[in-house]
Specification:
Elements lengths: L21 H16 L8 H18 L9 H18 L12 H22 L1 H8 L9 H13 L1 H30 L4 H40 L3
InterPro entries: ATP_synth_F0_asu (IPR000568), ATP_synth_F0_asu_AS (IPR023011), ATP_synth_F0_asu_bact/mt (IPR045083), F0_ATP_A_sf (IPR035908)
GO molecular function, one term: proton-transporting ATP synthase activity, rotational mechanism
Subcellular location: Membrane; Mitochondrion inner membrane
Length: 233
């Protein structure tokens, strides 16, 4: 039994980490992803069609931005979208460590991709990159402040990306933990209350499944939009 509602975010509590060390845990996740992405039959199976649907969404999104000019951007974005969906949904399983609700996971995704776009823009066209920091049509006395504001805005993008995903997933798991605690205590007090709380928890789990998909899409959508500023034509 969990000691408090935040114990679900501790990998040392009752979870898959108790019987599977970290390398085995990650190997199982990558094995599942490999099975979902592999083509076992000559004709596309239903499982393959479902797994290829997120890829097609991100390929279309990348084609609408300047990210299409970056080699490998669309495959990386589609793979990232699939990975975040799988990690988010696996966190809803009982006694499974919610990886996407921790900043070490979100930072490890946001910072390298954001830095790669910055370095690509600086390497390919440093003049255009520096010119994009200063908006056009601004008065001369306001230029230093605008450069500082724009630089700060670009620098905090990986932080906002990471905190947005981790905060939304953490809030959902905290609410699920609260409902579960009250449902467990209501089993010994009132049958009507326990049935009502269990019904609410089932509906909220379905709602959280939608949140898992939406947050994964928002994360990848913002990355694709950031490529408009960082990718030089």
């Amino acid at each position: 039994m969990l000691t408090d509602i935040f114990s679900s975010f501790d990998p040392s509590t009752i979870s898959i980490y108790n019987w599977a060390p970290s390398p085995i845990f990650w190997f199982m996740n990558f094995l599942i992803m490999l099975m979902l992405s592999s083509m076992f039959w000559l004709a596309p199976s239903r499982l393959h069609q479902i797994s290829s649907f997120p890829k097609s969404i991100m390929f279309e999104q990348a084609a609408r931005t300047f990210g299409k000019n970056m080699k490998g951007f669309a495959p990386i974005l589609s793979s990232l979208f699939t990975l975040i969906i799988l990690v988010n949904l696996s966190g809803l399983l009982p006694y499974v460590f919610s990886t996407s609700s921790h900043l070490f996971f979100t930072f490890s995704l946001a910072i390298p991709l954001w830095l790669a776009m910055i370095m690509s823009s600086v390497t390919n066209s440093p003049t255009d990159f520096l010119a994009g920091i200063l908006p056009g049509g601004a008065p001369s006395w306001l230029n230093p402040f605008l450069v500082l504001i724009e630089t700060t805005s670009i620098s905090v993008r990986p932080i906002t990306l990471s905190f947005r995903l981790a905060a939304n997933m953490s809030a959902g798991h905290i609410v699920l933990g609260l409902i579960g605690i009250y449902s467990a205590s209501a089993l010994f007090t009132s049958t009507i209350s326990s049935i009502s709380l269990l019904s609410i928890q089932i509906l909220y789990i379905l709602f959280e499944m939608g949140i898992c998909l939406i947050q994964a899409y928002i994360f990848c959508l913002l990355l694709s939009l950031y490529s408009d500023d960082h990718t030089s034509l």
